[in-house]
Amino acid sequence: MAVRLADVAAACKLSTSTVSRALSDPEKVNALTRSRVERIAREMGYVPSRVARSLVSGRTDSIGLVVPDIANPFFSAMTKAVQARARDKGYSVILADTDERAVDELDRARTLDKQADGLILASPRTDAAQLREIAENSQTVFANREVDGAASVVIDESEGMNEAVQYLVSLGHRSICYLSGPSRSWSNLQRREAINAACVANEAELIELGPFEPQIQAGMRAADVVQFKGATAVIAYDDMIALGVMARLAERGVQVGREISVIGIDDSPLSEVAYPLLTTIHLPGAELGATAVDLLLEQLDSAATDSEPPRLCLETRLVIRGSTGLRVS
Amino acid sequence: MAVRLADVAAACKLSTSTVSRALSDPEKVNALTRSRVERIAREMGYVPSRVARSLVSGRTDSIGLVVPDIANPFFSAMTKAVQARARDKGYSVILADTDERAVDELDRARTLDKQADGLILASPRTDAAQLREIAENSQTVFANREVDGAASVVIDESEGMNEAVQYLVSLGHRSICYLSGPSRSWSNLQRREAINAACVANEAELIELGPFEPQIQAGMRAADVVQFKGATAVIAYDDMIALGVMARLAERGVQVGREISVIGIDDSPLSEVAYPLLTTIHLPGAELGATAVDLLLEQLDSAATDSEPPRLCLETRLVIRGSTGLRVS
DNA sequence: CACGATGCCGGAAACGGTTGCGGTATCGTG
DNA sequence: CACGATACCGCAACCGTTTCCGGCATCGTG
Known about the structure:
The structure is a homodimer. Chain A has three domains: 5-48, 434 Repressor (Amino-terminal Domain) (Orthogonal Bundle), CATH 1.10.260; 62-155 and 285-314, Response regulator (Rossmann fold); 157-284, 3-Layer(aba) Sandwich (Rossmann fold), CATH 3.40.50.2300. Helices cover 46% and strands 18% of the residues of chain A. The first copy, chain A, has twelve helices and twelve strands. Chain A has helices at residues 5-12, 16-24, 31-44, 50-57, 73-88, 102-115, 128-137, 158-170, 186-201, 216-229, 239-251, 285-301; strands at 62-67, 92-97, 118-122, 140-143, 151-156, 175-179, 205-209, 233-236, 261-266, 279-282, 311-315, 317-319. In chain A, the strands form two sheets. A six-stranded parallel β-sheet of chain A has the order 2-1-3-4-5-11, sandwiched between helices. In chain A, strands 7-6-8-9-10-12 form a six-stranded mixed β-sheet, with helices on both faces. In chain A, helix 1 (5-12) packs across helix 2, helix 1 crosses helix 3 (31-44) and helix 5 runs parallel beside helix 12 (285-301). The A-B interface holds A 47, 49-52, 54-55, 60, 62, 69-71, 73, 76-77, 79-80, 83-84, 87, 92-97, 99, 111-112, 114-115, 216, 243-244, 246-247, 250, 269-270, 272-277 and B 47, 49-52, 54-55, 60, 62, 69-71, 73, 76-77, 79-80, 83-84, 87, 92-97, 99, 111-112, 114-115, 216, 243-244, 246-247, 250, 269-270, 272-277. Strand 2 (92-97) of chain A pairs antiparallel with strand 2 (92-97) of chain B.
C-alpha cells in the first residue's frame, strides 16, 4: 500500500541505509545521490513511518495532556496553548479528559504514558502519593498543582486574592463568602488558604460554603445558599461558579454589583459578556500551558539528570469590572 | 529499562511467542501456563509496547481531530464528546488546533494522518478539492461540512433557522440582519442559504453583514454596524458573535430583548449566563462529535468497502430565552 | 502397536525504519 | 608505484511485538 523506504531504495538502486541517511542525515552522503534520493522519494510520495521510527528511537514525539474538563474555558484556553507550543517544538498532543472524575486520572495518565514521551497533568485531583508514583515512572509536569519531587508550574493566587479581599473591604464589605470548588482540588486548597490569610490581614470575616463543582449549574445552586446566608460579598472558586451565581441572582431580581458583589477567578472570556461584567482574578492559563510544555521538553532533553526538578510560579492580578460595588445596607 | 516481552519469556522459561499468545490470545495456550505467564508478567510489571504492537498491526488505536479553535465552546464541547466516545471504543485522540488558519488545515491533517488510524476534520475552511484529496488518502470523517465522496456528519440548520425567522416575524420584525461568519466556512454558507430561504418564505427582508470571526471581540464590532444600520432583529453566525453584540449594545445602553432582538447559534453554556439570556438555535455539538467517531470507527472496521460513504444529518431547534422580544418602533 | 488427530509450544520471519561497522573506490602524497 | 587517508555506501543487527508454520508429545482409535 504505502511506499516504504525499501521501495525508494529499490528505485534508486541503493541500499535502505543510504536512503535513510540521505533523507535524515544529509552530511553523511554524497550531495549528488542525496538530491537524487530526495527527488525520487518525493516523486514516489514517500513518507516515513512514524511508528517504525519510534520503535528504534524510543520517542514518539508526542506528549499527553490530562485535563479535568476540556469544556471549562480555563482548560480549553490552556489546552490551546499547550497544543500550540508543542507543535512549535515538533510535538503533537494526545488529549485525555477525565470529566472531573478523580479516579480516572491515574488510569488516563498511565495509558497516555505508553503513547507519549511525557505527560502534563492539569489540576489533578488525585492524592499526592499516587501522583508522585506517576511522576517517578514517567516524565511528568504538573500544572496548577505542586507535588514533592516533581516538576510543576502553578499560579500563585495569594496576591490576586489579597487584592480582591482588600478591594471588597475598601468597598465596605466586612464579611466575605467563599464558594469552595472541588474538595480534592489542590488549587481550591490554595485559594482557601489565600483568602483566609487575606481576610485575617484585612480584618474581614470569612464564610465558607461548598464544595461546588466548577460549573454554571452548581453556581446557580450556590446563589440560593448565598442569599440565604445574607452575604453581600462573594468570591467564587472560579468564573463558572461566579457566573452561575450571577445568573441565578438576576433571575431572582437581585442586582449584582449593587446589592451584592461577586468576584470570580480565571478571567475567562465569559467574564466579559456576562452582565454585569464579572470582576475576576486573572489567571494566566495560556502561559501556564506553554510553560508546562517548555518544562516538559527541557526535562525530556536533559535525560534524567537527577537534579531537583523545577517549580515555576506565575502571578495573578485582580481585574475590576461591574459585578462589584459599594456595600449597601 | 522497561521490561520487555523477552524478559518475561526468559523468566517463564518460555518463548516470546507463547508469552505473547498467553497474554493476548488466551485460547491458544494451556490454561496452566497462561495463568503462570499472567502472574509473572504482572509481578515484573510488564506493559506491552504500543509502538512495537502498532508496527506489526498497522494500527495505532488513535484518531486525529482537527478543530479551528478549541477555545470556542462549540468545539470544546464537541472535542469532549469525541474524546469520550473514542475512549469508550479504546481509542485515544490526538488534537490539532488550527487557530482558524485555513491554510494550516491540510498540513495538520497530513501530519496527524501518519500518527492516527483516521481523522475527524471539524468545520474545515479549506476548499473541497483539497479536502477530497485528504479523504482519498486517509480514513476521514468530516464534521459540520459535506464533501463529495467522503463520510460526513452535519447539522441541518434550515429547520432551526426557519423557526427563528418565523419567530422574529411573529414578534413584528420585518427586516432581519444576518451577521456572517468566516467567509470560507461551509456552515456559514449553509446558514446564509437557510436564512435566505426562511426570509423569502416568511416575507421578511434580509440584510447581510460581515464576515466576522466567531469571537466575542468581532461581535462587539458587529454591534456598532448593526446599530448604524438601524436593525431591530439580528441573527448571528454563532453565539460568540451574538454575545459580543449583546455586550457591546449593553455598553451603549441599548436594551437587548426590547429595543433590539438578538439570536445566536450554538446554544453554548454561555447563552445561559449572558444577560439577557440568549435566544439561540441549539446545535447538538456533543452528538456531532460522538457521531463522527462512530462513523470513523465503522469506516475503519469495514476496511475500504467502496460503497457510498455515509452522510448523516442532525437536527436543530430554536431555544427561546430573553434576548428576543416584540418589536417596538 | 501403529497411525492420525489434536493440543501446545518454539523458531523465525515479518512490520519499517536507524545505525555501527566494515568494505571499496578514489584521491593525494611520498 | 605503493601506501594511507578519506568519502561513500552496503551489510546486518536491532527496536519489541505478532503470527505463520512446523515439530513434538500425548491421546484416542483401529
